[in-house]
Amino acid sequence: MDKIKSFKNLIQPDVVTDELANELINAAGNIVLNRRFPFGYAVGTSVPAQYEYIQVRIAVELYSKMGAEGQTVHNENGISRSWEAGDVSPSLLKQILPGCGSVV
Fold first, then answer.
1. CB within 8 A of 91, min separation 6: which ones?
2. Do residues 29 and 55 make contact, with C-beta atoms less than 8 angstroms apart?
3. N or C: which end of the chain has fewer CB within 10 A?
4. Where are the domains of the chain?
């Protein structure tokens, strides 16, 4: 899956640099990995294939919130915005099952 291409397709008609797209994809990947492996993971661990699309969707959500990070309520001209807690909506995070393993 070409995550950068998928990300750019989902945010059209907006246009972003490859650097910004890559940064958002990487940040989303860290969010997925931290949710999937809540007790830590080895350096170099990649996002499991079944979560790659969720990674892209999280990157889109991060992009859409740029400039208004942490916004809880915004009312203007009859438009009201409020965001769920954290960087990413819980509805996306619920789709990532935490893994478990031996501590040994």
1. 84
2. yes
3. C
4. 3-93
